[in-house]
Amino acid sequence: MKKKIALVMGGYTGESVVSLKSAAVVAQHLDEDRYEVFPVHVYQDSCYHLAANGEKIPVDFNDFSISLAGEKIKFDGVFNIIHGSPGEDGKLVGYFDMLGIPYTTCDSLTSSITMNKAYTKNIIADIPDLHVAKSVQLFENYNGLAEELLEKLSLPIFVKPNSGGSSIGMSKVKKAEELDLALDLAFKEDDQVMVEEFVSGREFSIGIYKAKGKITVLPSTEIISSKEFFDFEAKYKPGVSEEITPGRMDERDVEKVKKIAEQVYRKLNCKGAVRMDYFLETKTDDFYFIEINTVPGQTETSLISQQVKAVGMNLKDFYTELIEEMWH
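-> C-alpha coordinates emitted (328 positions)
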Protein backbone atom coordinates (compact mmCIF):
# COMPACT_ATOMS: atom_id res chain seq x y z
CA MET A 1 0.00 0.00 0.00
CA LYS A 2 1.28 3.45 -0.90
CA LYS A 3 1.51 5.90 1.97
CA LYS A 4 -0.80 8.92 1.63
CA ILE A 5 1.17 12.16 1.92
CA ALA A 6 -0.33 15.65 2.19
CA LEU A 7 2.01 18.11 0.47
CA VAL A 8 1.16 21.24 2.42
CA MET A 9 1.86 24.59 0.72
CA GLY A 10 0.83 28.25 0.64
CA GLY A 11 0.73 30.14 3.91
CA TYR A 12 -0.26 33.52 5.31
CA THR A 13 2.71 35.65 4.20
CA GLY A 14 4.23 37.05 1.01
CA GLU A 15 6.38 33.93 0.91
CA SER A 16 3.38 31.81 -0.14
CA VAL A 17 4.45 32.41 -3.78
CA VAL A 18 7.83 30.80 -3.07
CA SER A 19 6.10 27.97 -1.19
CA LEU A 20 4.06 27.07 -4.30
CA LYS A 21 7.24 27.00 -6.40
CA SER A 22 8.97 24.78 -3.84
CA ALA A 23 5.93 22.47 -3.68
CA ALA A 24 5.87 22.09 -7.48
CA VAL A 25 9.47 20.83 -7.41
CA VAL A 26 8.87 18.51 -4.45
CA ALA A 27 5.76 17.06 -6.16
CA GLN A 28 7.75 16.43 -9.34
CA HIS A 29 10.46 14.49 -7.47
CA LEU A 30 8.47 12.43 -4.96
CA ASP A 31 8.63 8.66 -5.45
CA GLU A 32 5.29 7.72 -7.04
CA ASP A 33 5.87 4.03 -6.35
CA ARG A 34 5.96 4.67 -2.61
CA TYR A 35 3.64 7.63 -2.05
CA GLU A 36 0.27 8.91 -3.12
CA VAL A 37 0.61 12.69 -2.95
CA PHE A 38 -2.23 15.12 -2.22
CA PRO A 39 -1.47 18.84 -2.72
CA VAL A 40 -3.06 20.78 0.16
CA HIS A 41 -3.24 24.59 0.06
CA VAL A 42 -3.41 26.45 3.36
CA TYR A 43 -4.42 30.12 3.40
CA GLN A 44 -5.98 32.39 6.02
CA ASP A 45 -9.41 32.19 4.44
CA SER A 46 -9.35 28.65 3.00
CA CYS A 47 -7.76 25.22 3.22
CA TYR A 48 -8.32 22.70 0.45
CA HIS A 49 -6.91 19.80 -1.53
CA LEU A 50 -6.40 20.81 -5.14
CA ALA A 51 -7.51 17.80 -7.19
CA ALA A 52 -5.97 16.93 -10.56
CA ASN A 53 -9.07 18.28 -12.34
CA GLY A 54 -8.69 21.67 -10.60
CA GLU A 55 -11.47 21.07 -8.10
CA LYS A 56 -10.91 22.50 -4.61
CA ILE A 57 -11.91 19.92 -2.01
CA PRO A 58 -12.20 21.38 1.52
CA VAL A 59 -10.15 19.91 4.35
CA ASP A 60 -12.03 18.73 7.44
CA PHE A 61 -10.18 20.38 10.35
CA ASN A 62 -11.52 17.88 12.90
CA ASP A 63 -9.02 15.29 11.70
CA PHE A 64 -7.23 16.96 8.75
CA SER A 65 -8.95 14.65 6.25
CA ILE A 66 -10.64 15.05 2.87
CA SER A 67 -13.52 13.26 1.14
CA LEU A 68 -12.87 12.01 -2.39
CA ALA A 69 -15.60 10.20 -4.33
CA GLY A 70 -17.44 9.46 -1.09
CA GLU A 71 -14.32 8.02 0.55
CA LYS A 72 -12.75 9.64 3.62
CA ILE A 73 -8.99 10.03 3.16
CA LYS A 74 -6.71 10.42 6.17
CA PHE A 75 -3.02 11.15 5.65
CA ASP A 76 -0.14 8.99 6.87
CA GLY A 77 2.12 12.03 7.02
CA VAL A 78 2.65 15.62 5.93
CA PHE A 79 5.40 17.05 3.74
CA ASN A 80 5.45 20.62 5.03
CA ILE A 81 6.73 23.21 2.54
CA ILE A 82 5.07 26.38 3.90
CA HIS A 83 7.68 29.11 4.40
CA GLY A 84 6.81 31.63 7.12
CA SER A 85 3.46 31.40 8.94
CA PRO A 86 1.78 29.01 9.75
CA GLY A 87 4.10 26.25 8.44
CA GLU A 88 7.48 27.46 9.66
CA ASP A 89 6.50 29.20 12.90
CA GLY A 90 5.11 26.13 14.70
CA LYS A 91 1.37 26.89 14.48
CA LEU A 92 0.45 24.24 11.91
CA VAL A 93 2.73 21.49 13.24
CA GLY A 94 1.32 22.04 16.75
CA TYR A 95 -2.08 21.18 15.26
CA PHE A 96 -0.60 18.06 13.59
CA ASP A 97 0.90 17.05 16.95
CA MET A 98 -2.54 17.23 18.56
CA LEU A 99 -3.91 14.93 15.84
CA GLY A 100 -0.90 12.59 15.94
CA ILE A 101 0.01 13.16 12.28
CA PRO A 102 3.76 13.00 11.58
CA TYR A 103 5.45 15.68 9.44
CA THR A 104 8.80 16.37 7.80
CA THR A 105 9.84 19.54 9.67
CA CYS A 106 10.85 20.67 13.19
CA ASP A 107 8.39 20.36 16.09
CA SER A 108 6.30 23.33 17.18
CA LEU A 109 8.67 24.53 19.95
CA THR A 110 11.78 24.51 17.74
CA SER A 111 9.82 26.05 14.86
CA SER A 112 8.54 28.95 16.94
CA ILE A 113 11.87 29.60 18.69
CA THR A 114 13.87 29.58 15.45
CA MET A 115 11.49 32.10 13.87
CA ASN A 116 12.66 34.48 16.60
CA LYS A 117 16.18 35.52 15.57
CA ALA A 118 17.11 36.95 18.98
CA TYR A 119 15.99 33.89 21.00
CA THR A 120 17.80 31.56 18.60
CA LYS A 121 21.05 33.48 18.97
CA ASN A 122 20.84 33.22 22.77
CA ILE A 123 20.43 29.43 22.61
CA ILE A 124 23.36 28.80 20.26
CA ALA A 125 25.67 31.47 21.72
CA ASP A 126 27.87 29.03 23.65
CA ILE A 127 28.61 26.64 20.77
CA PRO A 128 32.43 26.46 20.39
CA ASP A 129 33.87 28.33 17.36
CA LEU A 130 30.52 30.00 16.59
CA HIS A 131 30.20 33.75 17.13
CA VAL A 132 27.14 35.99 17.23
CA ALA A 133 27.15 39.68 16.32
CA LYS A 134 26.43 42.15 19.13
CA SER A 135 22.70 42.89 19.03
CA VAL A 136 19.67 44.35 20.84
CA GLN A 137 16.16 42.90 20.79
CA LEU A 138 13.36 45.48 20.66
CA PHE A 139 9.70 45.12 21.64
CA GLU A 140 8.49 48.65 20.88
CA ASN A 141 9.41 51.73 18.90
CA TYR A 142 9.49 55.07 20.70
CA ASN A 143 11.03 58.55 20.56
CA GLY A 144 14.72 58.56 21.41
CA LEU A 145 15.17 54.83 20.65
CA ALA A 146 17.65 55.50 17.82
CA GLU A 147 19.92 57.55 20.15
CA GLU A 148 19.84 54.81 22.80
CA LEU A 149 20.82 52.17 20.26
CA LEU A 150 23.73 54.22 18.91
CA GLU A 151 25.18 54.36 22.43
CA LYS A 152 25.22 50.55 22.59
CA LEU A 153 26.07 49.53 19.02
CA SER A 154 28.59 50.72 16.41
CA LEU A 155 27.59 51.61 12.85
CA PRO A 156 26.98 50.10 10.35
CA ILE A 157 24.07 48.12 11.83
CA PHE A 158 21.35 45.85 10.48
CA VAL A 159 17.74 46.42 11.48
CA LYS A 160 15.58 43.31 10.95
CA PRO A 161 12.05 42.22 11.79
CA ASN A 162 12.71 39.54 14.39
CA SER A 163 10.58 36.79 12.91
CA GLY A 164 10.17 37.74 9.27
CA GLY A 165 11.52 35.51 6.56
CA SER A 166 12.91 36.54 3.18
CA SER A 167 14.47 39.77 4.50
CA ILE A 168 11.38 41.96 3.98
CA GLY A 169 11.58 45.12 6.12
CA MET A 170 15.32 44.76 6.64
CA SER A 171 17.75 47.70 6.34
CA LYS A 172 21.47 48.29 6.58
CA VAL A 173 22.07 51.57 8.40
CA LYS A 174 25.36 53.37 7.79
CA LYS A 175 24.48 56.86 9.06
CA ALA A 176 22.84 57.78 12.36
CA GLU A 177 20.10 59.80 10.64
CA GLU A 178 18.90 56.71 8.70
CA LEU A 179 18.10 54.71 11.84
CA ASP A 180 14.64 56.14 12.67
CA LEU A 181 13.31 55.29 9.22
CA ALA A 182 14.82 51.78 9.36
CA LEU A 183 13.14 51.15 12.73
CA ASP A 184 9.76 52.32 11.37
CA LEU A 185 10.16 50.01 8.36
CA ALA A 186 10.99 46.96 10.50
CA PHE A 187 8.22 47.60 13.05
CA LYS A 188 5.75 47.74 10.14
CA GLU A 189 6.58 44.05 9.50
CA ASP A 190 6.82 42.80 13.07
CA ASP A 191 6.17 43.80 16.68
CA GLN A 192 9.66 42.60 17.62
CA VAL A 193 12.77 43.93 15.92
CA MET A 194 16.43 42.95 16.16
CA VAL A 195 19.22 45.46 15.68
CA GLU A 196 22.72 44.07 15.29
CA GLU A 197 26.21 45.20 14.40
CA PHE A 198 27.35 44.51 10.87
CA VAL A 199 29.85 41.71 10.36
CA SER A 200 32.12 42.20 7.39
CA GLY A 201 32.69 38.89 5.70
CA ARG A 202 31.70 36.39 3.05
CA GLU A 203 28.22 34.94 3.33
CA PHE A 204 27.50 31.20 3.23
CA SER A 205 24.53 28.93 3.70
CA ILE A 206 24.68 25.29 4.73
CA GLY A 207 22.02 22.55 4.66
CA ILE A 208 21.68 20.01 7.48
CA TYR A 209 19.21 17.14 7.73
CA LYS A 210 18.55 14.00 9.72
CA ALA A 211 17.78 10.71 8.02
CA LYS A 212 18.36 7.04 8.83
CA GLY A 213 19.14 8.10 12.39
CA LYS A 214 22.10 10.30 11.54
CA ILE A 215 22.69 14.00 10.93
CA THR A 216 24.15 14.85 7.52
CA VAL A 217 25.79 18.22 6.84
CA LEU A 218 25.70 19.19 3.15
CA PRO A 219 28.38 21.33 1.44
CA SER A 220 28.11 25.10 2.02
CA THR A 221 26.99 27.49 -0.71
CA GLU A 222 28.81 30.81 -0.95
CA ILE A 223 26.53 33.73 -1.77
CA ILE A 224 28.01 36.65 -3.67
CA SER A 225 25.34 39.32 -3.95
CA SER A 226 25.54 42.42 -6.07
CA LYS A 227 23.22 43.97 -3.48
CA GLU A 228 24.35 45.35 -0.09
CA PHE A 229 22.92 42.26 1.59
CA PHE A 230 21.05 39.09 0.63
CA ASP A 231 17.55 40.65 0.56
CA PHE A 232 14.29 39.46 -1.00
CA GLU A 233 15.34 40.55 -4.50
CA ALA A 234 18.78 38.95 -4.18
CA LYS A 235 17.16 35.71 -2.99
CA TYR A 236 14.48 35.36 -5.64
CA LYS A 237 15.45 37.43 -8.68
CA PRO A 238 17.77 35.63 -11.12
CA GLY A 239 21.16 37.23 -11.70
CA VAL A 240 21.16 39.45 -8.60
CA SER A 241 23.38 37.07 -6.66
CA GLU A 242 25.92 34.47 -7.63
CA GLU A 243 25.97 31.20 -5.73
CA ILE A 244 28.93 28.82 -5.59
CA THR A 245 28.42 25.26 -4.30
CA PRO A 246 30.61 24.05 -2.63
CA GLY A 247 31.68 27.51 -1.42
CA ARG A 248 35.33 28.56 -1.42
CA MET A 249 36.71 27.51 1.96
CA ASP A 250 39.90 25.73 2.97
CA GLU A 251 39.62 22.16 4.24
CA ARG A 252 40.15 23.17 7.87
CA ASP A 253 37.19 25.59 7.73
CA VAL A 254 35.02 23.04 5.93
CA GLU A 255 35.55 20.58 8.79
CA LYS A 256 35.04 23.29 11.40
CA VAL A 257 31.72 24.47 9.96
CA LYS A 258 30.49 20.85 9.68
CA LYS A 259 30.99 20.43 13.43
CA ILE A 260 29.34 23.80 14.16
CA ALA A 261 26.33 23.06 11.91
CA GLU A 262 25.76 19.65 13.51
CA GLN A 263 25.88 21.19 17.00
CA VAL A 264 23.42 23.94 16.00
CA TYR A 265 21.04 21.27 14.64
CA ARG A 266 21.29 19.24 17.88
CA LYS A 267 21.12 22.22 20.25
CA LEU A 268 17.94 23.54 18.61
CA ASN A 269 16.51 19.99 18.41
CA CYS A 270 15.89 20.32 14.66
CA LYS A 271 14.19 17.73 12.46
CA GLY A 272 14.05 17.34 8.70
CA ALA A 273 16.11 19.60 6.44
CA VAL A 274 17.14 23.03 7.73
CA ARG A 275 19.51 25.68 6.42
CA MET A 276 21.95 27.73 8.49
CA ASP A 277 23.24 31.04 7.13
CA TYR A 278 26.60 32.32 8.40
CA PHE A 279 29.42 34.77 7.72
CA LEU A 280 33.11 33.97 7.52
CA GLU A 281 34.51 37.18 8.98
CA THR A 282 37.11 38.85 6.77
CA LYS A 283 39.82 39.78 9.28
CA THR A 284 39.58 36.88 11.71
CA ASP A 285 38.10 33.98 9.68
CA ASP A 286 35.65 33.52 12.57
CA PHE A 287 32.25 31.97 11.90
CA TYR A 288 29.31 34.28 12.67
CA PHE A 289 25.77 32.89 12.92
CA ILE A 290 23.15 34.78 10.89
CA GLU A 291 19.97 32.68 11.16
CA ILE A 292 18.44 29.28 10.64
CA ASN A 293 15.59 28.43 8.25
CA THR A 294 13.55 25.40 9.29
CA VAL A 295 11.53 25.25 6.04
CA PRO A 296 14.13 26.21 3.44
CA GLY A 297 13.18 26.71 -0.21
CA GLN A 298 13.12 23.59 -2.39
CA THR A 299 12.99 25.02 -5.91
CA GLU A 300 15.40 23.60 -8.51
CA THR A 301 17.79 26.50 -7.90
CA SER A 302 17.34 26.68 -4.11
CA LEU A 303 20.48 26.38 -2.01
CA ILE A 304 19.50 23.02 -0.48
CA SER A 305 18.77 21.57 -3.94
CA GLN A 306 22.19 22.73 -5.17
CA GLN A 307 23.88 21.18 -2.11
CA VAL A 308 22.07 17.84 -2.47
CA LYS A 309 23.16 17.65 -6.12
CA ALA A 310 26.74 18.61 -5.14
CA VAL A 311 27.06 15.39 -3.10
CA GLY A 312 25.83 13.35 -6.07
CA MET A 313 22.39 12.66 -4.64
CA ASN A 314 19.15 13.18 -6.53
CA LEU A 315 16.17 15.05 -5.10
CA LYS A 316 13.92 11.97 -5.27
CA ASP A 317 16.17 10.03 -2.86
CA PHE A 318 16.63 13.09 -0.67
CA TYR A 319 12.87 13.62 -0.28
CA THR A 320 12.32 9.90 0.33
CA GLU A 321 14.84 10.04 3.20
CA LEU A 322 13.06 13.09 4.70
CA ILE A 323 9.66 11.40 4.47
CA GLU A 324 10.82 8.04 5.86
CA GLU A 325 12.43 9.81 8.84
CA MET A 326 8.95 11.03 9.92
CA TRP A 327 8.01 7.55 11.15
CA HIS A 328 11.21 6.91 13.12
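The longest strand covers residues 201-211.
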